[in-house]
Amino acid sequence: xxxxxxxxxxxxxxxxxxxxxxxxxxxxxxxxxxxxxxxxxxxxxxxxxxxxxxxxxxxxxxxxxxxxxxxxxxxxxxxxxxxxxxxxxxxxxxxxxxxxxxxxxxxxxxxxxxxxxxxxxxxxxxxxxxxxxxxxxxxxxxxxxxxxxxxxxxxxxxxxxxxxxxxxxxxxxxxxxxxxxxxxxxxxxxxxxxxxxxxxxxxxxxxxxxxxxxxxxxxxxxxxxxxxxxxxxxxxxxxxxxxxxxxxxxxxxxxxxxxxxxxxxxxxxxxxxxxxxxxxx
Length: 281
Description:
The chain is α+β, with helices and mostly antiparallel strands.
């Protein structure tokens, strides 16, 4: 009796990063082949969240294609070579050939114990729980700040008063003028200035505070009430992280601080004159 052997199915979202994610396992044991993959519910398959949006339609087709190979009695392993028969563990090598740039199989090796009759499902479920399920949990990361900003400000794209990348020139002393860039501006003559600020990065916090102080020192440009620091931090973390509290306090001296991860962020921006919901407060 040959020891069982298994493959790990992997999904590669981005070949530049080369960070494959485990999406399933396939087990061979004395001619029996069985597998389990993320997103399966009986005969239905739904692409899990870790699959890129533009590839989710193809995901069910891949799973169903692999399962079609499981039930065959023999599979080709290449021109000029004899077909792999399911009675031999090399049948897995033939299954592994059904791959492309994003979906691949990696040989997991042999399992050092025989499988009791009818026990292949237990092996599949064990390997799946050990090798696959944690991978799906790991990619459920919080939405990045860049994505939050893009999503929340998307309704303003066609608004002529919305000015991404606005630059403001002001006097920083009696003899020098400096131009300061901001993430967004809203308005024409006296625009609201908004800067995306990643709390925890002291240099960016300091530079943001400096340029808000500079532009608000010139009454002809903008007041502190029209300077807005955009942060994106979990409320609990902001309350408990001393460094982030200090950074938020510093920004609050020279600007209005709006936490985009807070439930009232859209309303607060509306109060400040930035109508994300399409209605000026």
